[in-house]
Amino acid sequence: MPVYVVGHKIPDSDSICGAIALAHLRNQIGETSVASRLGDLSPETAFILDKFGFDAPELKMSYAGEEVYIVDHSEVTQAPDDIAEATIVGIVDHHKLGDLTTSTPLECWIRPVGCSNTIIKMMYDFFNVEIPQDIAGIMLCAILSDTVIFKSPTCTTADIKCVEDLAKIAGITDFKALGMEMFKVKSAVEGTPARDLVMRDFKDFNMNDNLVGIGQLEVIDLSVFDDIKADLVADIAALKAEGNRHSVLLLLTDIMKEGSEVLIVSDDIAIIESAYDKQSADGKMWLDGVLSRKKQVVPPLQAAFA
């Protein structure tokens, strides 16, 4: 019976590419593994897989009775709904330690780096397994995405070194140009329903028994949202009500200006304002220099709810 390697709900490029890369590594060391996913591909991820010739991993929503290797999170809210009925054999992650627990020992690779695929590159090095050219390509794209082409404060020297190494293997001479190509795909929002945009990169967090949803849209120019911002606000309000959430935040991140406009719907917006020491105006606030949900948005919000 194989181990299923799977990322979080509403998977991003790190989650999908990491599952493919880690499943390949485990198969090379004699641990039969299959990459899977918990949702549809984002346009960016579809672009990456198409560029390097990969099909999407198997869509699998139920894991009861299965062995599972978790990639890119350690949170119950982001795991398969029946994760309590599965056996977690390992976790690869670069976020804060979440609330997943196990009844048996497991392998954990958790590092304070910008991307799970950076850690997976370290695992390939540890096991002395050669990385195929196509897998190197998707891994470097995932790192470029998560680190916002090295602009994010989560980016480390390890991330940069791994991208440089992977680019050589993948035969990519200008990886920053490839990164910009990816972000242009992300920036193409015209004609996309508001719900699809809100859920493109959305995660739920348990903050002191309050469910808080945080989405993020990274683009090269915030003007792409000018005609649809009201629709986005209406949709996060609907999403809050549907999921019985305390708050929903949507980060509209401008990677060129290096900051984020945050759209907020909350039972108590004062908590959100206190987290960032900012006053909102009509449910919106600008956070200069904020690019990372993981490092700059979640920690102060978690502290405010505590």
Automatic annotation (TrEMBL):
- The EC number on file is 3.6.1.1
Q: Which UniProt keywords apply?
A: Hydrolase, Manganese, Metal-binding
Q: Does the keyword Glycoprotein apply?
A: no
Which residues does the UniProt record annotate as the domain DHHA2?
179-305
The UniProt GO MF terms for this protein read: inorganic diphosphate phosphatase activity
Q: Which cofactor does it need?
A: Mn(2+)
Q: Does the keyword Ion transport apply?
A: no
What SMART domains does the entry give? Answer: DHHA2 (SM01131)
| Recorded catalytic activity of this chain's protein | diphosphate + H2O = 2 phosphate + H(+)
What is one Pfam family matched by this protein? DHH
Per UniProt, the enzyme's principal EC class comes to hydrolase
Q: Which NCBIfam families match?
A: PRK05427.1 (NF003877)
Record's protein name: inorganic diphosphatase
